[in-house]
Write a structure and sequence with these properties.
The chain is built from ten helices and 18 strands. By secondary structure, the protein is of the alpha/beta class. It has two domains: about 190 residues, Quinone Oxidoreductase, Chain A, domain 1, CATH 3.90.180; about 120 residues, NAD(P)-binding Rossmann-like Domain (Rossmann fold, 3-Layer(aba) Sandwich), CATH 3.40.50.720. α7 links the parallel β14 and β15. α3 packs across α4 and α3 crosses α9. The longest helix is centred in the middle third of the chain and has 13 residues.
């Protein structure tokens, strides 16, 4: 069996536990699978939280869905080229540039929920090669986006598509996006604007210009009186909130939602426990929606966007695979706008 270079997580811990191995067995595609030579792999909070064992609900250290099997190769965002195919896969796929859907689904239906993710419940893309199901390797050979931009898409933009679809955000609506300078937040800004929505974005003042460049109509400073700023930016109220922060924001901003408004949430970095006056929810027919990543249908829409080049992911920094610890430390400092990518091409 051939070897490859891979970053291996042998146990939970800090960046120092990551091992750059040059003797890691190269995976072999089974029936219905393809072997992808990784060109670029994006970085996400999932990678840090899984490494630390701090993902999800309080309790013992775990990965995205619970305890993970060590050693594990992380990395859910993968762009690359099909290098080999398993049985039952068309040999003509060899050489295709592909974007990998990182989701492991409960069943084969188009709207099946996710039960695992690449890099947590199965080995991922922080390596020279990764194996994935044929159906989850989407051909993007004609995309005008470069490999690093494509690798920025799967988890962040997949999560954003899922949020906007579940909240039915459409043209002409006013949407508040929290955490707008992060990977998912900036994706929400770009994708909501592409739908014809008017976006009010929450970010720090230092990053406001870059968020405006991504298409936001107004940026409000998360360090000030947020409710007053949002009310000024959206005097007629909000149709929807796309929230990746949680925390006290919910109680402060909920009164600004119009009747029949929607609040979709996919993160809790500002606090997982909130106060909620239920009367505000039911007296105005508001909808509170939890959203975990995407469905097959959602990801297919994202692939269409990638093929057409209608969105251009912002790549904040690129690191070689061997510098993954430095890349994760830079990610943790959160001084960037957009995505940090490991380039292997």
């Amino acid at each position: 069996m051939a070897d490859m270079t891979a970053v291996v997580l042998p146990r939970h811990g800090g960046p120092e536990v990551l091992e750059v191995r040059h003797d890691w067995p190269r995976p072999v595609p089974g029936p219905g699978q393809v072997l992808v030579k990784v060109a670029a792999a994006g970085m996400n909070n999932t990678d840090l939280w899984t490494r630390e064992g701090a993902y999800g609900l309080p309790g013992p250290p775990s990965g995205w869905r619970g305890p993970i099997a060590f050693p594990r190769v992380q990395g859910g965002d993968v762009c690359g080229v099909v290098a080999e195919v398993g049985a039952e896969v068309a040999p003509s796929r060899v050489g295709e540039r592909v974007l990998v859907d990182p989701a492991l689904y409960r069943d084969e239906t188009p709207t099946a929920p996710i039960v695992g993710v690449l890099g947590s419940e199965s080995d991922g893309g922080f390596a020279e090669y990764v194996v994935t199901d044929d159906a989850r390797a989407h051909d993007v050979s004609e995309s005008p986006l470069d490999d690093d931009q494509l690798a920025a898409l799967p988890i962040a933009y997949g999560t954003a598509v899922g949020m906007l679809e579940r909240a039915a955000v459409g043209a002409g609506e006013t949407v508040l996006v929290t955490g707008a300078s992060g990977g998912v937040g900036l994706a929400l800004v770009q994708l909501a604007v592409a739908r014809g929505a008017r976006v009010v974005a929450v970010s720090s003042g230092a990053k406001a210009a870059q968020v405006l460049d991504a298409g936001a109509h107004r940026v409000v400073d998360r360090g000030g009186d947020l409710a007053a700023q949002v009310a000024d930016a959206a005097p007629d109220g909000l149709d929807a909130v796309a929230d990746v922060a949680g925390g006290p924001l919910l109680d402060a901003i909920l009164p600004l939602l119009r009747t029949d408004g929607r609040w979709v949430i996919a993160g809790a970095i500002a606090g997982p426990v909130v106060e909620l006056d239920l009367r505000r929810l039911y007296l105005r027919n508001l909808t509170l929606i939890g959203s975990t990543m995407h469905t097959r249908e959602h990801f297919a829409r994202l692939v269409d966007e990638a093929r057409a080049g209608t969105i251009a992911p912002v790549v904040a920094a690129r690191y070689p695979l061997a510098q993954i610890a430095e890349a994760q430390q830079a990610f943790r400092r959160a001084e960037h706008v957009g995505k940090i990518v490991l380039s292997l091409g």
